[in-house]
Please model this.
Amino acid sequence: MAKQPQDLQTAELPGIPEAKRRGRVPINGKAMTAAERKARSRLNQQMIAAKDFSKPFKVPVSVEVDLSCSGFLRQIAKDQGLTIASAFELMVSEYVTSHKIEKRFDELL
Model:
């Protein structure tokens, strides 16, 4: 059994390994905060998505639309039982598919 860190009088016994520290192994010498771990996780997800387009990665986007377009979007979402964000994503993906935009995007890369 290892001695406590505060014990300065007891000598270490030879041949007994030091106890391993509990928890995650620190990357930069000290433990990361939850925010640092999440930021690192998001960066890793972006890197994976950049290499493999088949893996979805959501990016926040702000869009201003006309009032009539907004009403149309709300109606589609209501009819399909979707959120407005999901309905917008569906409309964009259908547009991309019908106009073969993905092929042109791949050519740019």
The chain has four helices and no strands.
